[in-house]
């Protein structure tokens, strides 16, 4: 084995430390141990002085890289995706004079402790280096000042400090540099161009830093051969330089998430004829989109959302036959949605939400459209949804038509089998819930809230096994909550509030946040549906928590779980199977006709943040065990028939005031201003029989009124009988009613006082 020159054991799931026998492989020139589970240090490799290629990537190696100091023949080194501690100065590699390629991504990058390295020049001249993620690299690595043959540099996701301008000197010193990525490096200051044109750089990415000021007007002259340029997520202001039009090789341009103003230069719209990707999102750009000459026929992805563009959707985009994504949302575009969109044979994503568009849903005719994501929310679109939408049945994955004025019912032919998200809220859609989504077995979000749907909630919803968010708020649904909803194992949010639902609450409902689902399922979900946040349209979901409505986006929704059945006509006792709601965050059952006690098992819901049981007919005591709900921020049991003492103000219960308990006449305690004395404490009433229909608390008021009336009548009859039997008393009392008219006119009430007093004395 001593004469072995090449060893490749890639991807064999080997684990543990490297065996000591590697120490004897002194003739090795190429060693690949990648994609295993080796761990520990690499000190056994320090004798392999003839190694020219070393690949240790995708393992669990740790410690420093000092063992590589003696590998003086090394030309190609890949130690990426491990747990090495690598100094940003690369000091341990300074003596490797033949080293040309380094990959060290996804390790622990740190600043070097030895400042003397700043004055030393390494013996290597690198061609390619990738040292991205993660850590703090201190000042910009000084060894770069001594490099002149670089062709590719990637230093992303390392936080440098004391770097107050773009390292333009790196371009001036390395005239062959083709790729430069400095993403998320905490760089700031102006973007300074090299003093002369750089004729090699084709890929520049400085996104997610703190560069500011204007983009240099002559950028097109100094970097004329750029193919991709990403300057997004910085603080650039001013207008877009027209010299971008001089970059005739430009294929991808991303200036999104800055503070740019003005319009899109016409020279850029004519000069960049090879441009495929254009992202100008989230700036303050204005004016009409592509108002002049237009030569960007190669566009495939256009993102102009989040600006102040006006005018109509430009018809020149109809000439972009390769267009597959068009995002014009969050602008001030008006007019109708053009019909030519229906002819775009490769368009898979269209978002024109939150504009001023009006008219009807476009009448797209012909063959099935390839659209997978369609968003037209928050416009002024009206009328019924036409049968043209049935052309999207084959591939539609995402549909958002919310916050418009659509009316009528969904076409019966609309049955998209691949649909994952449906947002039709805040329209005027009506009729029974259509069967459109009956076979959408991949459906994750169904939001039909704030419409006029009626009838029963269909049982087939229980067959949507992937459903996580069911939102049917403020419609006219009636009948009972289908027991089939208990078949939904992935539910995170269910909102059936503000309907006319009746009957009991199914005790078998299962609700849990996405982040509590097994890791295997999350991996399955994202891999199956090829979730790409950079290309997918995201719609926030409205949900009421702590009596206020909030909008939650995907990254927050994964931590949300809740049940809202408020404002219905539900009856019966509250009875959930605790194991099915253990990770519940919010529960709102207010404004129903629920009876019985508050379940003590709610005290086991350790993650509960909001509990609203107000405006029901609940009885019994408030469980003192609720004091252990440490995350409870909203608690309301007002306007019920609860009795006993209000809970002690300990734990989270100490943060709630009288408003949480008001309207319960039989509660006592300082919070409701009523003493809990033994006299005032009501006895527990006997259990009502099955025929009882009302509960009046401590006293049967009907019996009280009947007995009082009977006693009153008996007293009157006794007095009448006494007066009838004794004539003297009858005459004496009769004299009470005789008034002396003369004395009456002078203000004297009675003219006969003696007979009155005698009458009283005689009765006594």
From TrEMBL:
<comment type="similarity">
    <text>Belongs to the RLP family.</text>
</comment>
<dbReference type="Pfam" id="PF13855">
    <property type="entry name" value="LRR_8"/>
</dbReference>
<dbReference type="GO" id="GO:0005886">
    <property type="term" value="C:plasma membrane"/>
</dbReference>
<dbReference type="InterPro" id="IPR001611">
    <property type="entry name" value="Leu-rich_rpt"/>
</dbReference>
<keyword id="KW-1133">Transmembrane helix</keyword>
<dbReference type="InterPro" id="IPR032675">
    <property type="entry name" value="LRR_dom_sf"/>
</dbReference>
<feature type="transmembrane region" description="Helical">
    <location>
        <begin position="703"/>
        <end position="725"/>
    </location>
</feature>
<keyword id="KW-0812">Transmembrane</keyword>
<protein>
    <recommendedName>
        <fullName>Leucine-rich repeat-containing N-terminal plant-type domain-containing protein</fullName>
    </recommendedName>
</protein>
<dbReference type="InterPro" id="IPR003591">
    <property type="entry name" value="Leu-rich_rpt_typical-subtyp"/>
</dbReference>
<dbReference type="InterPro" id="IPR051502">
    <property type="entry name" value="RLP_Defense_Trigger"/>
</dbReference>
<keyword id="KW-1003">Cell membrane</keyword>
<keyword id="KW-0325">Glycoprotein</keyword>
<keyword id="KW-0677">Repeat</keyword>
<keyword id="KW-0472">Membrane</keyword>
<keyword id="KW-0675">Receptor</keyword>
<keyword id="KW-0732">Signal</keyword>
<dbReference type="Pfam" id="PF00560">
    <property type="entry name" value="LRR_1"/>
</dbReference>
<keyword id="KW-0433">Leucine-rich repeat</keyword>
């Amino acid at each position: 084995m001593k004469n072995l020159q090449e060893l490749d054991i890639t991807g064999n799931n080997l684990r543990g430390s490297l065996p000591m026998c590697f120490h004897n492989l002194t003739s090795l020139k190429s060693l690949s141990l990648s994609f295993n589970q080796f761990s520990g240090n690499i000190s056994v490799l320090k004798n392999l002085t003839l190694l020219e290629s070393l690949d240790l990537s995708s393992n669990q190696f740790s410690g420093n890289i000092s063992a590589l100091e003696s590998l003086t023949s090394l030309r190609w080194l890949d130690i990426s995706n491990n747990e090495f501690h690598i100094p940003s100065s690369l000091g341990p590699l300074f003596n490797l004079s033949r080293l040309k390629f380094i990959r060290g991504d996804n390790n622990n990058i740190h600043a070097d402790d030895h400042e003397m390295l700043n004055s030393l020049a390494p013996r290597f001249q690198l061609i390619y280096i990738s040292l991205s993620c993660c850590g703090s690299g201190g000042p910009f690595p000084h060894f770069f000042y001594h490099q002149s043959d670089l062709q590719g540099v990637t230093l992303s996701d390392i936080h440098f400090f004391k770097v107050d301008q773009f390292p333009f000197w790196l371009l001036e010193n390395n005239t062959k540099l083709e790729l430069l990525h400095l993403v998320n490096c905490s760089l700031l200051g102006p973007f300074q161009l090299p003093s002369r044109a750089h004729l090699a750089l084709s890929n520049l990415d400085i996104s997610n830093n703190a560069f500011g000021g204007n983009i240099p007007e002559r950028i097109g002259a100094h970097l004329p051969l750029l193919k991709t340029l990403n300057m997004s997520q910085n603080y650039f202001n001013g207008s877009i330089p027209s010299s971008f039009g001089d970059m005739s090789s430009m294929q991808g341009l991303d200036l999104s998430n800055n503070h740019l103003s003005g319009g899109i230069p016409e020279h850029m719209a004519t000069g960049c004829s090879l441009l495929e990707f254009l992202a100008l999102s989230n700036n303050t750009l204005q004016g009409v989109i592509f108002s002049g000459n237009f030569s960007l026929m190669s566009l495939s992805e256009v993102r102009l959302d989040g600006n102040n563009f006006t005018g109509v959707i430009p018809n020149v985009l109809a000439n972009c036959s390769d267009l597959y994504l068009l995002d014009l949302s969050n602008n001030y575009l008006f007019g109708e949605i053009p019909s030519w969109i229906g002819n775009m044979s490769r368009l898979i994503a269209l978002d024109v939400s939150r504009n001023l568009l009006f008219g009807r849903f476009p009448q797209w005719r012909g063959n099935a459209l390839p659209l997978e994501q369609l968003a037209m929310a928050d416009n002024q679109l009206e009328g019924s949804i036409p049968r043209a939408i049935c052309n999207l049945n084959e591939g539609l994955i995402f549909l958002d038509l919310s916050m418009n004025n659509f009316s009528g019912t969904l076409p019966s032919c609309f049955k998209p089998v691949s649909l994952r998200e449906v947002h039709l809220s805040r329209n005027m859609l009506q009729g029974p819930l259509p069967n459109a989504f009956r076979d959408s077995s991949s459906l994750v979000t169904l939001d039909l809230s704030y419409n006029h749907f009626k009838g029963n909630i269909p049982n087939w919803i229980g067959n949507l096994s992937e459903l996580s968010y069911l939102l049917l708020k403020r419609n006219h649904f009636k009948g009972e909550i289908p027991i089939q909803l208990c078949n939904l194992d992935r539910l995170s949010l269910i909102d059936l509030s503000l309907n006319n639902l009746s009957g009991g609450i199914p005790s078998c409902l299962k609700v849990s946040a996405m982040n509590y689902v097994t890791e295997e399922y999350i991996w399955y979900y994202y891999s199956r549906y090829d979730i790409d946040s950079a290309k997918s349209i995201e719609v926030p979901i409205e949900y009421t928590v702590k009596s206020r409505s909030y909008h939650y986006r995907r990254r927050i929704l994964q931590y949300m779980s809740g049940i809202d059945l408020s404002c219905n006509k539900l009856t019966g006792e509250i009875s959930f199977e605790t194991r099915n709601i253990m990770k519940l965050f919010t529960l709102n059952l207010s404004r129903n006709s629920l009876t019985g006690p508050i379940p003590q098992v709610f005290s086991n819901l350790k993650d509960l943040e909001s509990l609203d049981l107000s405006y029901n007919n609940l009885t019994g005591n408030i469980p003192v065990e609720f004091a252990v709900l440490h995350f409870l921020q909203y608690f309301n049991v007002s306007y019920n028939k609860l009795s006993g003492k209000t809970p002690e103000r300990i734990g989270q219960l100490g943060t709630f005031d009288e408003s949480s308990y008001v309207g319960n006449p039989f509660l006592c305690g300082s919070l409701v201003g009523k003493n809990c004395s033994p006299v005032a404490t009501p006895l527990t009433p006997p259990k009502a029989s099955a025929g009882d229909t009302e509960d009046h608390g401590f006293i049967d008021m009907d019996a009280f009124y009947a007995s009082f009336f009977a006693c009153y009548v008996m007293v009157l009859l006794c007095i009448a009988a006494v007066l009838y039997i004794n004539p003297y008393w009858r005459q004496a009392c009769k004299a009470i009613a005789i008034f002396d008219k003369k004395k009456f006119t002078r203000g004297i009430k009675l003219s006969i006082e003696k007979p009155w007093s005698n009458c009283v004395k005689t009765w006594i």
